[in-house]
Amino acid sequence: MADIQNCDSCSINPLDLFERVTTQGEKVRSLKAEKASKDEIDTAVKSLLSLKLSYKTVTGQDYKANSPPIDFTPMNNGSAMAEDEDFVDPWTVQTSNAKGIDYDKLLVRFGSSKIDNELINRIERVTGKKPHHFLRTGIFFSHRDMNQILDAYENKKPFYLYTGRGPSSEAMHVGHLIPFIFTKWLQEVFNVPLVIQLTDDEKYLWKDLTIEKAYQYAVENAKDIIACGFDINKTFIFSDLDYLGKSPGFYKNIVKVQKHVTFNQVKGIFGFSDSDCIGKISFPAIQAAPAFSSSFPLIFKETKGVQCLIPCAIDQDPYFRMTRDVAPRIGYPKPALLHSIFFPALQGAQTKMSASDPNSSIFLTDTPKQIKTKINKHAFSGGKDTVEEHRKYGGNCDVDVSYMYLTFFLEDDDKLEQMKQAYTNGALLTGELKKLLIETLQPLIAAHQQRRKEVTEEMVKEFMTPRKLAFDF
Ligand code: TRP
Q: How many CB atoms lie within 10 A of CB 334?
């Protein structure tokens, strides 16, 4: 066993250390069971104690059997998973339940915290603004360290926002807008810089795409993102394929992360195998680096360690659990996170939508007629088969996709609640519910298309140029 005490504790990973303590504990137990010599046992115990001490130094927590360090718990999505368990990683979201993923269970499995009323009220108190309806309706439902961000904000300490998108095709659907709509609100309410990463490199590595196509999709997606209304003076959008070669600060952070994460760990977190290309294996470091402010020297100048807040869908959490684990070991604050639930496919909440199946969602390019047809034809209904039965027994909002979509896009809480009741008691029919959704989405998509048309090439270029933003650091 290596001499832990003498090695640089910063280079040991908490999870490795946890496993070493566990193994050493087992060794001590078996030596005792075998009635080994006192000397032998004493040496093993000494080594165990020193490992426990290192564990405490690295994680700040006492070693507890069967409870690995929180930020680095592997997801255990593998084969040992029980059949009724949900599966969530950055590439796959799968559940056998028509209601969708069990998010309460996910909170426990991922070890994140619930966004409860107390936190929502605090956000309202601190900002003086009415909380976004994504918070009120539980669409952003989970967080890590959001209270630290609010503390910083109250103490007038700066922070910044970081989010992103993997440009896998030109076509974005309404679900893709969720993190951006919310991020725009956060930017407005807190008045902070925002960086948006377009991982064209990731899509090149994972999909059957050329480098040129991936970059082209990044630029096209940037237009849809800009159309969400971000402030050009406060937002930097970057393509990895482009920015990585321009910013030594960014690359240095990538290398720092790469040095502190082992192949074993990424295998545990992301399920990579020996036959995955090395590009995939090292990619998580590239998604981690924007969470460190020194990756953006033109924005933050010499100011070191500006705290970062990442709004994202919960499937991205594995990247940021890794980032949070590494951060203190390379001298940076851990990024805070706000997690959203998934946007369901039209066919039902069992799965995430796929950009390659045009009927699985409403696309930002759909015409009013397409929106109407898709919803009427494909939106999974929780209603009963006949009007008589529906009136008698009522519909089931828990599995009804039109209702779910309305929780995302109908901002009027009272109206939503009234609808839920009317649908549940049978007064509102499926056709009527669908009509409401169609009438909500048609103007929303049309307005998006109009704003996208107004995004000029010059604007895209400006958003994507590394530069100082409207903040003095
Ligand atoms: N990997 C993400 C995707 O495929 C893109 C991404 C990069 C991202 N950085 C992010 C998403 C930060 C949320 C927050 O969509």
A: 19
